[in-house]
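To: structure subgroup
Subject: Chain for Friday's discussion

All,

I'm putting the inputs and outputs inline so they're searchable in the archive.
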Amino acid sequence: MTYLSVVIPCFNEEEVLGITLSELKRELDAWLSDYEIILVDDGSEDKTWEIIKELSTTDNKIKGIRLSRNFGHQYALSCGLFHAQGAVTAIIDADLQDPPSLIKPMVEKLNDGFDVVYGRRKKRHGERAIKRLTAYWFYRVIKKLSGLNIPEDTGDFRVVSRRALDAFLKMPERHRFVRGMFAWIGFKQAAWDYDRPERAAGKTKYPILKSFLLALDAVVSFSKIPLRLATLLGFSFACFSGLYLILVIILFIFGINFPGYTSLMASILLLGGVQLICLGILGEYVGRIYEQTQFRPLFIVQETVGDLKKVVLSA
C-alpha cells in the first residue's frame, strides 16, 4: 500500500497547476518517496487535462482522472478519495492556498493518536471582507444547527488516516459537504492553524452563488431544524389567527367593526408568504430524498492516466 495519497480536485487550473505540482513534489520528495498524487479534472474547459496527461507521462507518481462533465468540487474530491490507496490521505486545492509545506507536520500529528488533522485558517489573505464575514458566520451557524462539532474556519484541507477515510467512503449521500461528513464520522481529530495565502494564479472557483449553494447543502444535509422552524412558524401564525378571530368576534358583539381592504390583503399576503416559505423548505428535503432514491452515480469517469484502482469497501 502506498504510504501517502494526495488528492487534488481541479477545475480550469491551467494557470497554476504546474506551479502547484512543482512545489508539492519538492516538499514531498524532501521527506518521502512512497506517495501518489491524484489529480481529478472536474470537466475543465481549458488545458488542465492536457497538462495532467503530460505530467503523468513523465512521473509515475502523478495520476489523473477526467470526469465526463463538471460535477462540482465536492464530487470531484469524493472521486479522488475513492481512488486513494494511501495509508494516509491528504486533501489540498490546486491553487496553493493550502500550503504543501504543511502536509508533513500534519501527517506527523497523526502519530499522536489522531485520525484527522484539518487545517484551520487564522487569516484569509486576498479575500474580500464580505466573503470573510459570510464564512465566519456560516461555520458558527451550521455548527449550532447540526449539533455536530464541525470545525470553524476550515476548508477541505486535511490529512486523514486509512480507517477515517474508509468510514467516510461508506457514506452514500448524494448532496455532499465533505468537511461536515468528516466531522460526522467522529474519531479523534485535531486542528492545525495556519495563515491562508492568496491564490497563486487563476480565479476562485467558489464565488458567492456557489458558496451559498454549498452552505444550503450543508444545512439541509446535517440539520432538521429548518423543518422544525417551518412547523413552529406555522403553529405560531395559527395561534395568532385564532386569537385574532376571537378578538374580531368580541368586537363585533360590542358593535365595533374595522372594515378595510388593505388590512385584509396584507394578512392574506403575509400568511401566503409564510406558507410558500414552509413549502419551499419542505421541498428542499423532499427533492433531496427524490434524488437520493434515483441511485445515480456521484460522478462519471471519462478517462484516466496512471495506475489507478478504485477502493472496494466491504459492507
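Points worth raising on Friday:
The mean pLDDT is 77.
The two ends are 21 Å apart (CA to CA).

D.
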